[in-house]
Write a structure and sequence with these properties.
Two copies of one chain form a homodimer. Chain A is an alpha/beta fold. Chain A is built from 14 helices and 17 strands.
């Protein structure tokens, strides 16, 4: 008896003799139509799922099965490879292909036979850039060049400050494009704004002031760090800097484009915020999440430029390029640099050095600027279409906030937001209400409205998404 | 009066009239030797640092300065670009190049005039693969192909489970190469082992058992999560699984290659650990940090393969490819998958989707296997050279542990480790003592020895590193 004979034979198959290569014979009936590789893979999955092919069973060599079934060898080899890749089979040198132990129970729930339920037809959730606009070619070029030119040490343990190439490129870019005043030594690379906030939160006194409108996710990060966020009122000129709570020593702001209400922070208030920081030893955390995307005129510079010693500036690629590249940056006052580095630890834990090198090249060769310009044009057109459609068809509602960013706020009459959200769901629109971004402990009542992200839908579907939205809004405000 | 005239003229310069392009004239004296771009950049930095060029000062157009100084235009343009990149200057469309506000104070501390102190000549710290061996070409090919073939949604917000392409590739690879039994649905991508441990620690009861030898960094992660690590004795057959503390419900193991003592966990102990987990409802966390690198025979499979329901398997690229690509993976029992995903949150916060896609391709096209084979050969040769040099020149010390991984332990006589470390520092060797990896609350006294990482030194310098180490060890043990 060879060791092959000890294999469990497939139950319920027609053949029981070992195949020519040592694997067990296998009876399969394939439907006559469909690509052979696909139908074979499906039949094999079904055989495992049903228990007909038990865990540990050795499959016949693909040549033998191809001959049995009258299929091309490649089709069988490909189907085997597919099931190995999916974890149904295992392939080991010298022991052939076998059914994975536990594959029937482990893999079955992950391969549902039923089709996935249909998602919303139009994704109008805020905060997502157009995934189809990712500049694949230009990024590839930068990544390849950066990888070829990188010094050897770049492939060793990472510096928690981030790659020097990227910090140099960011210092020049942020200075030029966002009016940030910094050298590379005050920049710390992170994996996005949330990562930056997680690093900063434990370092600052426990009372923070936050805008009364903001991302609950960010307030949750402060909560988790034991920080108490106190809401500051927001109006059409941004945060009310005359209303910063007396005990706060850190102020989280979105000056370029208040999130999500869309206000630009008034110049006088910028100055007032900086005066507050100077007078109290306070720190402004500037979340410049979409500062590059201003459509009516040139973007206003960062508050950081007014006083680099009192502002921690934070930016990321999540809106400007893609959230799939987990890269962001903090520009910090001198005294915070060391503290954040201590919090990060001795090695970089998150941000890929390869992506950092690619981004440095991408910025320096001008591709980042070109991408921003292209997206600015595209998003501006989309915003204009949305605003014009609403203005002409439902003139009683307003799109508020400056012409900027990846989202617009459609103000609604009091008492209509929930109905609008329900109607939107019915219409296949995925979006949020304005009130869900209002801090629960803010004294002012929440405005009602819709936060409409206009960047993510495919270009070809955008017109239909706007039509559907106009229909929802019109139905709700006209009762 | 034009707006140019309101610019601050450089103080202490010889020229005061505006230059031909609107920028202020600038007096600079350049040393006669050295690349023009470099000496010009140095002189400009010095002018800012000294305050001679105040913040906001507009620089003369590079053509004008080139003419003044008799330099090539390119040299001046390059020097300007360099200072912009470093944050000393700002360049804005339509307003020319200016000295950055605050550049003198902000940038000065980061540009130390003194040369950096010389580091150790040979890096023998454990845990670092050879950075010069990073397969730049093959990775570039995979990254380019993956980027070209990725579906559009890959550039949207990331799934905290990780890219499906990578989880499929890992399921097949880990099954084939490490005997891990899993489908893609039990894999969660993370940014490395530490990230995985940070996710798992809060989910498991507060008492963990850890091997008495291990990375203090990992024990620190458990401490930070409020978990108490109880040390389990380790001998030449790995962890003493008969000595798991009664209150522990989680056991952190390095079965393939005990870290850092180098034992392989005995088969009977593997079975005993799994029995313990089954009997107590416990979980084994298997840190397979260098499981692919076994040199004396075929790597032994993962403990996870014995019972996927009671083992959380963790691996990463940090040893097998590079710590610069921040990617790792957890293979989890069903009930832990949801818990870890809840801990991760709704979106991927850390792991780059681009790197994930590249790695999936890199594994599937066979490049990862080729890289592992190549490295296995290289590291084996290095380990053999180290062991042979010590055996022939200092036969009274032993290299202990199995022939595997990126480091070796050189056992030393009691009372000599500190002296050996001091001698190593003097000889320009960077390495750690074995006792620094011994858990401080373990009852058994720490062995003495050196933990020698042999993977990182450049190929050409490895012989000298071994010579220096042999000299250190010989000097210490022969007094």
């Amino acid at each position: 008896m060879t060791s092959d004979d000890t294999d469990t034979a497939p139950r319920g198959g027609t053949g029981t003799a070992p195949g020519p290569g040592g694997g067990a014979d296998l009876h399969l009936e394939l439907p006559p139509h469909g690509a052979r590789r696909t139908v074979l893979a499906q039949a094999l999955r079904e055989a495992v799922r049903s228990g007909r092919l038990a865990g540990g069973t050795r499959l016949p060599p693909y040549r033998a099965l191809a001959a049995d079934l009258g299929l091309a060898r490649n089709a069988v080899a490909d189907a085997y490879a597919e099931l190995v890749a999916e974890g149904w089979f295992t392939a080991r040198q010298g022991s052939g292909t076998r059914v994975a132990e536990g594959a029937a129970t482990a893999a079955a729930p992950a391969a549902p036979a039923a089709p996935a339920p249909a998602g919303p037809r139009h994704d109008l959730l805020q905060g997502k850039p157009d995934p189809a606009a990712f500049p694949r070619g230009a990024w590839s070029t930068s990544a390849r060049r950066a990888l070829a030119e990188a010094p050897t040490e770049a492939f060793g343990p990472g510096d928690p400050r981030g790659r020097p190439e990227l910090r140099r490129a960011l210092a020049a870019y942020l200075s030029r494009a966002r009016g940030v005043r910094t050298g590379p030594e005050n920049i710390i690379v992170c994996s996005g704004f949330a990562n930056g906030l997680r690093l900063l939160a434990p370092l600052r006194p426990r009372d923070w002031a936050v805008e009364e409108y903001g991302l609950p996710f960010h307030h949750g990060i402060l909560d988790a760090a034991g920080v108490h966020p106190h809401p500051v009122p927001v109006d059409e000129d941004g945060a009310r800097t005359d209303r910063i709570p007396a005990l706060a020593r850190t102020l989280l702001l979105t000056p370029a484009h208040q999130f999500p209400t869309g206000a630009r922070l008034l110049s006088a208030r910028r100055a007032e915020a900086v005066e507050w920081a100077r007078g109290t030893g306070g720190l402004i955390v500037e979340d410049d999440y979409d500062g590059e995307f201003r459509y009516d005129r040139k973007p206003v510079g960062a508050v950081q430029g007014l006083d680099p010693g009192h502002v921690a500036y934070a930016g990321s690629l999540s809106k400007s390029l893609s959230p799939a590249v987990r890269l962001g940056w903090l520009v910090l006052p001198d005294d915070l640099v060391g503290q954040v580095l201590t919090a990060k630890g001795q090695r970089e834990s998150w941000a890929s050095a390869l992506d950092q090198l690619a981004l440095a090249d991408f910025i320096e060769c001008g591709a980042y600027d070109r991408h921003i310009r292209r997206m600015r044009q595209r998003y501006r057109t989309r915003r204009d279409r949305l605003a014009e459609a609403l203005a002409s068809r439902v003139p009683e509602v307003r799109v508020t906030g400056i012409s900027a960013g990846l989202h617009a706020v459609v103000d609604l009459p009091p008492g209509t937001e929930q109905a609008a959200l329900a109607a939107a769901r019915t219409a296949g629109l995925s979006l949020d209400g304005l009130s869900s971004y209002h801090h629960p402990s803010a004294p002012t009542p929440a405005r009602e409205g819709l936060v409409v992200g206009y960047a993510a839908p495919p270009q070809a579907a955008f017109g239909r998404a706007v039509e559907a939205l106009v229909g929802v809004v019109r139905g709700v405000v006209r009762g």
